[in-house]
Amino acid sequence: MVKNKERNIGVIHVLIVDDHTLFRKGLKKILEVCPDYSIHADEAENRNAVLNSLERQKYELILLDIKMPGETGLSLLSIIRNECPDQRVLVLSMYPEKQYAIRSMENGASGYITKGCEPAELFNAIKTIISGQRYFTPELTEMLAQRFLTGKSRSPNDSLSEREFTILRLLGSGYKSHEIAKRLYLSPKTIATHKAKIIHKMGFTDNTDLVKYVSDNDLLD
To answer: Is 148 exposed, middle or buried (0-12, 13-18, 19+ CB in 10 A)?
Structure first.
């Protein structure tokens, strides 16, 4: 990875990772008015672009989307952590905290916010993470507190890999195996294998149990 480079005081380098060009451009405009820092933002739309960017530049922060074609943001988060163990990552997702926040934090994210947040919350999250802390929304704090109070340190789906978790959500949302295969750039046979593993790990009897679990736990895609 790239070695530390000299910086202008007050300037931080941020990498925006999202497969939607308009969103990246819009987010760059928002970051231009950040009250705490002068932000220079680069863009990356997929895994290869991210890794190429990390070879060229050291970033104080990566803003990472969860939903990306062919590869989940969580699997990309794991890759980033392996390549750059100290890299700070703020997950910025369309999904509410209940679906992905804890998984993101367990995979090394420094914070998790939704795309529906106000710019002020985004700026607060950036400032918190740049200062060396993790950023917890009130919703995520409540989720963690409930886990602690009920003694449930893990969710049943925590036994699933990131790929299996993605397929679980898609199956439970009504997608057919061939549709999931096309969406994730996998073969239908691979999807069938993952489905069998999911049913076994989760203790489901059949697909009906899977669909009910996804619905009851607000995991619909």
So the answer is: exposed
Concatenating the DSSP letter of every residue in 137-190 gives -HHHHHHHHHHHHHT--S-GGGGS-HHHHHHHHHHHTT--HHHHHHHHT--HHH
pLDDT digits (tens, 9 = 90+) for 143-168: 777 766 665 556 677 788 888 888 99
Q: Which amino acid is at 134?
A: R
Buried b / exposed e over 162-190, threshold 16 CB at 10 Å, is: bbbbbbbbbbbeebebeebbebbebeeeb
The rounded distance, in Å, linking the Cα atoms of 202 and 27 is: 38
Q: Is the dihedral of CA 194, 172, 105, 92 positive or negative?
A: positive
Domains and their CATH numbers in the chain: 11-147 (3.40.50.2300), 156-216 (1.10.10.10)
pTM reported for the whole predicted model: 0.74
The rounded distance, in Å, linking the Cα atoms of 167 and 180 is: 7
Residue 44 burial (10 A CB sphere; 0-12, 13-18, 19+): buried
- Mean pLDDT, the chain, whole residue set: 86
